[in-house]
Amino acid sequence: MAKKKEPKPQREVTKRQLSKWQRQQKRQRIIMAAGIFVIVAVIGVIGSGWYINDYQPLHQTVIRVNDTKFSMDYYVKMLKYYGEGQPFQYMEYIADEAVTLTERNELLRQGAMKLGISVSNSEVDEKLKEGDPPLSKDYRDIARTDLLVDKLRDEYFEQEIPVSAEQRHTMAIFLESESQAAGVRTRLEAGEGFAGLAGELSLESISKSNGGDLDWHSQDALAILLDTSVLADYAFNSEVDILSPPLYDEAKTKWVGYWLVELLERDEETEQVHVQVILLGSEEKAQEIRARLEAGEDFAALAEEFSQHEASREGGGDLGFISREAMTSALSEFAFDPELELGTLSEPIRDDTAQTEGGYWLVEVVGIDDSRELSDEDRDLLKGRALNDWMESLWDDPENEVESYLEDEEKGWAIQRAISSD
Fold first, then answer.
1. What's the whole-model pTM score?
2. In the chain, how many H helices and how many E strands?
3. Which fold has domain 257-354?
4. Is residue 351 within 8 Å of 126, Cβ to Cβ?
5. Closest Cα to residue 358, out of 181, 200, 112, 209?
6. How confident is the model at residue 40, as a pLDDT?
7. Over the stretch 264-275, which tens digit does the pLDDT of each residue have?
8. b/e sequence 66-75, b meaning 16+ C-beta within 10 Å
9. How do the domains of the chain map onto residue ranges?
């Protein structure tokens, strides 16, 4: 019979061993607590940095339109949308434009709601899908605005535009100077064809491409079409088959100008020239100013008074040192002529890439109808203007409170954020 195994005697823990073990446990708890504290502290530092540098700025209100507020996050997304594909140097301009468009879109939404016009979320979703690629849902407000504009124009303002109106059938040519207009008028009176002269000489695109024939239009539609009221005002106060005298239009723009250029210095090493310039709207005016310069008048003073080149006018026409590539071909051909002596003043240099203001109309009314049905194109022009006028009224309404809290520093931060998140 097997012998019963005797149990091992239990080890008794002395007070000294117990105290040592308790101290080790305490030390481990302290070390663990310290580690947790360090981790929490690091997370806190990182978290507070994220909160201060990202979360807080992105969630602050930067634009307010009445009771609607827009955050920095919203503004950054608008910057990304409107600035997509644009050079970095344009972003400062786009930063201001994004503020204006955000305010305008919200004013339009609120104004349309008061007129009982709205767009459903499902319509917005369908609009977003039309993009290639489809637009992100971050841009729902842009899609909604596009749809609201269409509804306002084609539903609400459609009812505001008459079906018929008094109209005139006009012929017109736009010319650069009074003397040129007088010469062309003489040729028309002598029997030369209006279409041929308008196609050859008119500086306004519609009259040029249509041989001077502007077709039938109401007074308002004609003014909108040509972006000037001068021709329309004359046509609706004229009789049939009477050729107008030259009609001055100081604000009408055209793609032609005449430069006066003086070469001041050359830098052979950098291949640049130092020039001062004056841009005029007609050869006649350019010859007049050149004669005054030749008579001893100050170039800078005349440039500040007459030049239509905005970039140099306030500086007295001084362009500083400039490369060939930074000039139009018309300018560079003169300024970089190696035979040209310093101090030489150019003859008037025609430049078909320069935009200037001012010119003279020749107008002839060839038909009058006191009540003629408006074309679809004219009705679209009139609806578009009615919509623009309504939008302007929202801006001018003192009950609409529109405010931007963005300073230059915040706009700069938003630009960097928009660019870095691409």
1. 0.78
2. 17, 11
3. Chitinase A; domain 3 (3.10.50)
4. no
5. 181
6. 47
7. 999 999 999 999
8. eeeebebbbb
9. 24-59, 62-159+388-397+407-420, 164-254+357-373, 257-354
